[in-house]
Amino acid sequence: MSDQRTVLVTGATGNIGRHIVATLAAAGHPLRAASRHRPTDPAAATSHVPFDWHDPATHQPAVDGVHAVHLMPPPASADPVGQVGAFLDLAQDAGVRRIVLLSSSAIRTGDPGPGQLHATIVDRFPEWTVLRPSWFMQNFVAEHHHHGAGIRRDGEIVTATGDGRVGFIDAADIAAVAVRALTDPVPHNAEHLLTGPQTHSYADVAAMISEAGGRPVRHRTVDVDTMRHRLTSFGIPDGFAALLVGMDGAIAGGAENRTTSTVHDVTGRAPTSLRDFCAAHADHWRRTVA
Ligand SMILES: NC(=O)c1ccc[n+]([C@@H]2O[C@H](COP(=O)([O-])OP(=O)(O)OC[C@H]3O[C@@H](n4cnc5c(N)ncnc54)[C@H](OP(=O)(O)O)[C@@H]3O)[C@@H](O)[C@H]2O)c1
């Protein structure tokens, strides 16, 4: 039996948050779906609370009466500690007990910037989980992601990862783990390193998308300076672009060439493979790749 106390889901309209909201809403679990825009899904829309990291007036009403928070830090911030820390002050005062932090496989506890948040929630909340997912499969379809946009516009995926391999993961699998971390009666109090079932190079990904969509998509590997400029040209702030490019360099060096069994261990079901994800999104690429 899961815990029926209210869950606040930040990033409620995003890749992970919308699956968390849909799962909790379907189970009749009390929830608040926090984002700037109102979710389009009717079940999520009824639970919506306005929430903007840059508008502190929206924070207190969001956390009042909440037991557990899915915490997605301010997007594209290389140094989120101040903003998130102020929010956590409010959450602690409001009696929030459990935080499930959405972090990244590339960010280790104690790393500068976002890595400082891991210790912050462990130190301040009795119940916590740090989610450290690998790269999302959704990056290849999201309109606003540089990979999704590059595939659509130029038929290419551009990285500074060389032949490095990544355990790409479906956002729905991350959300399934998050739901357990938010609602299991016994808090996980653990870091979950989350990957899909296999690793692939970006060249593998391009080949699979080409096959699924029936249009050629290639991988172009570039040096880190070119990649940084490319990311800023997509509107990513320079500090965050530097962080992302550093992660590409780590991939090139083999840092993400690993898989874990955590999705299966926590949820009892195997994570989606990239091949199945590509098959499920074939229509998207058939329609959109130039
Ligand atoms: N993409 C990856 O491969 C990857 C890998 C590992 C970890 N991560 C991490 O996972 C998280 C999700 O990344 P994503 O790319 O998947 O994002 P995303 O799905 O595009 O989600 C963005 C969410 O944040 C909300 N949002 C945007 N600006 C906001 C603001 N100022 N205040 C409050 N909410 C705001 C958006 O809703 P509104 O616009 O309605 O506010 C939306 O719900 C990020 O923390 C990222 O670092 C991503």
Task: Describe the structure in your own words.
With 290 residues, the chain is of the alpha/beta class. It folds into two domains: 7-133, NAD(P)-binding Rossmann-like Domain (Rossmann fold); 135-169 and 195-257 and 271-290, UDP-galactose 4-epimerase, domain 1 (Alpha-Beta Complex). The protein has 13 helices and eleven strands. It has helices at residues 17-26, 42-46, 59-63, 81-93, 115-124, 146-154, 171-183, 202-213, 224-233, 238-252, 262-267, 274-280, 282-288; strands at 7-10, 31-35, 48-50, 68-71, 98-102, 127-133, 156-159, 165-166, 190-194, 200-201, 218-221. The strands form three sheets. The protein has a seven-stranded parallel β-sheet, with helices on both faces. Strands 7-11 form a two-stranded parallel ribbon. Strand 5, helix 5 and strand 6 form a beta-alpha-beta unit. Helix 4 (81-93) runs parallel beside helix 5. The longest helix is centred in the last third of the chain and has 15 residues, at 238-252. The chain is globular. The mean pLDDT is 96. NADP nicotinamide-adenine-dinucleotide phosphate binds next to loops.
